[in-house]
Structure prediction request, 304 residues.
Amino acid sequence: MRALVISGGGSKGAFAGGVAQYLMQESGRTYDMFIGTSTGSLLISHLALGKIDKIKTIYSSVNQESIFSNCPFIISKKYGSDIIGINHWNVLRNMLKGSKTFGESDNLRKLIGESLTPAEFEELKAGPKDVVVTVSNLSLNQVEYKSINECTYEEFCDWIWISSNYIPFMSLVRKDGCEYADGGLGSLVPIEEAIERGATEVDVVVLRTEVSYYNRMPSKNPFELLTNMMGFVLDRIENQNIRIGKLVATQKEAIINLYYTPTVLTTNSLIFNKEKMTLWWKKGFLYAKNKDTESMPIEPDSNE
Prediction:
């Protein structure tokens, strides 16, 4: 059984889409299982349907307004770099409404409902492929995995949305009596879950470089400090997930193929820039192609 696992990574999910496009369309790989966390959960339903062009169009056209119904920060440029600052009015408005987060992502929930139709959901559910999204149950302090086979259409769209809600900047969702948030808070790269569900070979797209290539600049405001801190925590979670995944793969004799980003795409994955994301999709495709070419065995010379 072969599985495709896509990690969290916000706007960097465009790179993962490019990798998946090459693996599925050019390399001819087929998958029995798709497991995603956060941005990975947004990709996997359309990948499982084989509707790669559709999800590519979506990832190539989103912006901040597509995601946030109330964006808690403003973006400015300084020396060619994106700098985030607090949108004091939006944050205050959220606090006055009694929200527990700085911003809200209701627009993302609408986008999910518009992009994954009930007919597509039923097609997936009736098919042989399993599609699984990762969520963090903050009330019970545990990670949960939601399979399409266990959900109604509205429930599955909710779980995809919840998996992508990077708190405290996006919505905290109460569902089934519990508070839920981004799956990456517990399992950013769910390799172990794929193997536990029976995968014997796992292609894993990890949306960061294999080795750290940068030092973060000093934080200029509380939001930058918070995003830097969350980035540090998620990096540690990611490293742990990969180590555990490799250990479980060794124990169960499964094969793992890892696809990291070759360069630092962005230091703030909450910034959704259409032009950059379009470029990252192309980079993901070319990276997977180069990696696949490098790993191909050399044919012996027929004259030898």
Summary: DSSP finds eleven helices and ten strands in the chain. The mean pLDDT is 90. The first helix runs from residue 13 to 26.
